[in-house]
Amino acid sequence: MKAKIAVLAGDGVGREVVPEAVKVLKAVAERHGHAFDFVSADVGGQAIDKIGVPLPQETLTLAKQSDAVLLGAVGGPKWEGLDYSLRPERALLGLREALGLYANLRPAKLYMALADASTLKKEVIEGIDILVVRELIGGIYFGKPKGIEKIGGVERGVNTEVYTTDEIKRIAKVAFEAARKRRRKVTSVDKANVLESSELWRRVVTELQKGYPDVELNHMYVDNCAMQLVRNPKQFDVLLCNNMFGDILSDEAAMLTGSIGMLPSASIGAQVGLYEPIHGSAPDIAGKGVANPIATIASAAMLLSYSFQLEKEGAAIETAIVRTLDLGYRTKDIHSAGTRLVGTGEMTDAIIRNLG
Ligand code: NAD
């Protein structure tokens, strides 16, 4: 197949791991006879430095005209003093909104070779396979009113958590459909004991479940869920979350699997899907060639499966990652005694060799 992929490396380690994922995609294209056209553009802090805004019009147009977007990460200390409206992270919100990406899928699956890299006991995490389905363009990150105002000499910061019935329905549908391809269990996360928006969330999800009698539905308060994720993560199959709860819980789920450098994500909704590692720009390790490229390479695998329906090719990348880990290759974040410490590029080369 022929496809155009927008490549937005962004800042920090994004600039190191995205080219590695592109290398893997090129290797897959060559082996399976596909023609992928990779077009790069500026985003985040890098775009601010060059053009003055985090999401230039040219980048947005490229993203809209592509078949899929591969993103690295944005942000870093250099831009932290800027006004919120100009910060690198605004680019993410802008892309999600403009592309209508209302569903963020974050799988947290334990690679058995890495069971020892987790801070949790092996018996607690062995066999975990969770899919966090996070609502991405609603809730408190977008709700209005928002801002900081001064009333009578006192400053007041305001954000608004708001969800409509339709917004809840469309994300819950994604969770129920995903559960049907997995272990048929959805845990819907809310704070319905305190928040009205959660009360509506719970009611709408419960109603929608009637159309999915083959899928089991549980509701769980977010504080309990945070606790259960470290106590007994194996109980979860699909976790359905609003924007903020999903943001926080997916990082927690990530840590169960050993390193944030391992976890991919897919954001879908309308025509163009966006694929990115769940980690940020990691300024503490950027430029050292030690970043783990696996989260981004696994995001590229999701891109092939979800946007191009190239499931076989996506699975080939995942198998190559497992093989490489089984052979003992480890970047610094997942390294343990007796395994082979490699840098970003060496890890990618090993994965490409294991593509079969
Ligand atoms: P982070 O994910 O960048 O880093 C957290 C920790 O994980 C760090 O110790 C880092 O070294 C490590 N880490 C991250 N990716 C790694 C990789 N591939 N391999 C090995 N180790 C890795 O989160 P942070 O430090 O809170 O944020 C840094 C910057 O990134 C901030 O400016 C933040 O706003 C931004 N950020 C961007 C995104 C995104 O672009 N989607 C997401 C989160 C944070």
Explain what the structure shows:
It is built from 12 helices and 14 strands. It is an alpha/beta fold. It has 2 domains: 1-105 and 263-356, Isopropylmalate Dehydrogenase, CATH 3.40.718.10; 119-256, Isopropylmalate Dehydrogenase, CATH 3.40.718.10. It has a 10-stranded mixed beta sheet with strand order 2-1-3-12-11-4-5-10-8-9, with helices on both faces. α1 packs across α10 (294-306) and α8 runs parallel beside α9. The longest helix has 19 residues, at 14-32. The structure holds nicotinamide-adenine-dinucleotide (NAD). Nicotinamide-adenine-dinucleotide (NAD) binds at residues 13, 17, 73-76, 89, 92, 260-261, 276, 279-285, 291-292, 295, 333. It catalyses: (2R,3S)-3-isopropylmalate + NAD(+) = 4-methyl-2-oxopentanoate + CO2 + NADH. Its cofactor is Mn(2+); Mg(2+).
Notable traits:
single chain, alpha/beta, Isopropylmalate Dehydrogenase, 2 domains, 10-stranded mixed β-sheet, two-stranded antiparallel sheet, 12 helices, 14 strands, globular, manganese, EC 1.1.1.85, amino-acid biosynthesis, oxidoreductase, magnesium
Give the topology, please:
Elements: E1 2-10, H1 14-32, E2 35-40, H2 45-51, H3 57-65, E3 68-73, H4 90-98, E4 103-109, H5 122-125, E5 129-135, E6 143-151, E7 154-160, H6 165-180, E8 185-190, H7 196-209, E9 216-221, H8 222-231, E10 238-241, H9 243-256, E11 264-268, E12 273-277, H10 294-306, H11 311-326, E13 329-330, E14 340-341, H12 344-353
Parallel strand pairs: 1-2, 1-3, 3-12, 5-10, 8-9, 8-10, 13-14
Antiparallel strand pairs: 4-5, 4-11, 6-7, 11-12
The protein binds nicotinamide-adenine-dinucleotide.
Nicotinamide-adenine-dinucleotide binds at residues 13, 17, 73-76, 89, 92, 260-261, 276, 279-285, 291-292, 295, 333.
